[in-house]
Amino acid sequence: PKVAPVQVIIVPIMFDKTKKEVLEQAESIRIVLKKDFRVEIDTRDGYTPGWKFNEWEMRGVPLRLEIGPKDMAQGQVMLVRRDTGEKVAVKEENLVETVKELLDNIQENLFTGAKKFLEENIRETSDYNEFKKIIEKQRGLIKTYWCGSEDCEDKIKEETKA
């Protein structure tokens, strides 16, 4: 989330009768959030909310904010985390604080998961035959010794396709 070009995407849930009101509310939320976060609104016509949800998830936006007429009537929005898919209803008066907490939590969650994945996928060997077996059967990184010559590097590349 700290490096995401867009940290929060607002996806208005629009119907013909309430489109104007929902878009106005989405814009007012964007104005409030843009003081602290990188935020955009997806106002494109011709796409369903589900299609937009999927597209922004594939783009890597960490937090999705959904707002529709029912949410407006209750004075709330729905926030959806990309990392867990968890949905939470948030009152508008708590929005900035909740978005900050969620983005911090997502950052920590992603970092912890990446660190664990890295640690679990580092192999260590000092034997060249074992090195070749690891390359062939497992993914991840291998810590090993190397003589430092280009000839050795070329041999490793040729024999292991690494």
TrEMBL record:
Its EC number is 6.1.1.15. Coiled coil: none annotated. GO terms for biological process: prolyl-tRNA aminoacylation. It is an enzyme of class 6 (ligase). Keywords: Aminoacyl-tRNA synthetase, ATP-binding, Ligase, Nucleotide-binding, Protein biosynthesis. InterPro entries: Anticodon-bd (IPR004154), Anticodon-bd_dom_sf (IPR036621), Pro-tRNA-ligase_IIa_arc-type (IPR004499), Pro-tRNA_ligase_II_C (IPR016061), Pro-tRNA_synth_II (IPR017449). One of its GO terms (molecular function) is proline-tRNA ligase activity. Residues 7-102 form the Anticodon-binding domain. Residues 128-162 form the Proline-tRNA ligase class II C-terminal domain. GO terms for cellular component: aminoacyl-tRNA synthetase multienzyme complex; cytoplasm. Pfam families: HGTP_anticodon (PF03129), ProRS-C_1 (PF09180). This is proline--tRNA ligase.
